[in-house]
Design a protein that fits this description.
By secondary structure, this protein is an alpha/beta fold. Helix content is 36%, strand content 23%. α5 (149-157) runs antiparallel to α7 and α8 (231-243) runs antiparallel to α9.
């Protein structure tokens, strides 16, 4: 039978894509899996479709819960029910190649000291259904590389390696999912999983991949107030990097990304402000203010004297961490 793999699929208003995702699991050449589908408060026919699949295959387990606002809530819910030795999450609009699970298990069995392997990463194909010329793949230069957990964490920060991986279940359960990180709390969680791994290997081959469908209007791309709550994830990443004593250049990198996120969120808000209700504007502006208040530059020699930022009034320089001087209008 081989190792059992638990697959979590958070589902929210998934009726357009659900067939493709579930069929890609049913078509796996590796059979020892369970699929846990969590309907996160859908308002369409998602749950009815899930019921049909559950009747067809006893390996498919379905659950229904109130909407939590992000995939991390659904994944955390599923952790109470998983029984496999390894765990993986798949998007409700994504797919995996037919031999993906089989090759991951093969690479695991092939690895020396496989009991110390805590994560297996197949290639990830970014697939643009409306323009296949834009498709690209994340694949390691050294397919036989073995990474430490810290190395995998660092490489995942800029997507040098993908977050789609089979993780040892005990690690996922120990860490749990971060559910206070806006719409991208699961991105923090995956990186925390990596940080807690002993060894990470790749299952890289041309015909083995996670197909990450780039839907033009996915949940994470819609202009909603929840989009402006994602800054907490990178703040947690910076805290995690400090906790594990990663090199200062890595912490600075995350810190710079936090500033970039603030600026990009501010640009989005100012460009789309009129599309939000007055109540939504108040919510978003409170989130932006909280984001700004939590930003503390990772100190180097020059940061003690000045650093640059921006707000809705314009661009400014902060001198000696207390004097703010505006030097230009903010135009995005």
């Amino acid at each position: 039978m081989g190792i059992k793999i638990s697959i979590c699929m958070p589902c929210y208003n998934s009726e357009k894509y659900l067939h493709y995702s579930i069929e890609s699991i049913l078509n796996q050449t590796y059979q020892n899996w369970e699929l846990l589908c969590v309907d996160d408060g859908s308002t369409d026919n998602t749950y009815e479709i899930l019921e049909q699949y559950a009747k067809q295959d006893s390996r498919i387990k379905i659950y229904k819960k109130e909407n939590g606002g992000c995939a991390a809530y659904a994944c955390q819910f599923a952790l109470n029910h998983i029984k496999g030795e390894f765990y993986v999450s798949i998007g409700h609009d994504d797919e995996i190649s037919p031999n993906c699970l089989e090759y991951c298990v093969y690479k695991y069995n092939l690895a020396i000291e496989s009991d110390k392997i805590d994560a297996i990463i197949p290639d990830t194909l970014f697939y643009f259904s409306n323009n296949e010329k834009k498709n690209y793949k994340i694949s390691p230069k050294n397919k036989n590389a073995v990474l430490t957990g810290k190395e995998a964490f660092v490489l995942s920060l800029d997507w040098s390696i993908s977050g789609f991986a089979l993780f040892r279940t005990e690690i996922v359960k120990k860490c749990g999912y971060y559910t206070d990180g806006g719409m991208n709390g699961d991105e923090y969680s995956v990186r925390e999983f990596y940080m807690n791994c002993n060894k990470v290997i790749f299952a890289s081959r041309d015909d083995v991949y996670y197909k990450y469908i780039q839907v033009p209007v996915s949940l994470t791309k819609k202009m909603t107030p929840r989009l402006f709550d994602i800054y907490k994830t990178h703040m947690k990443l910076e805290e995690l990097a400090k906790k594990h004593k990663l090199p200062s250049k890595i912490i600075k990198k995350i810190n710079r990304e936090r500033y970039s996120i603030y600026k990009n969120l501010l640009i989005k808000y100012l460009k789309n402000k009129n599309s939000f209700t007055a109540k939504e504007q108040d919510t978003i502006e409170a989130l932006l203010a909280d984001n700004l208040s939590l930003l503390k530059p990772y100190k180097n020699f020059w940061n003690y004297f000045y650093y640059r930022l921006c707000d809705e009034k314009g661009k400014f320089i902060v001198l000696f961490s207390c004097f703010k001087i505006y030097y230009g209008k903010f135009n995005g």
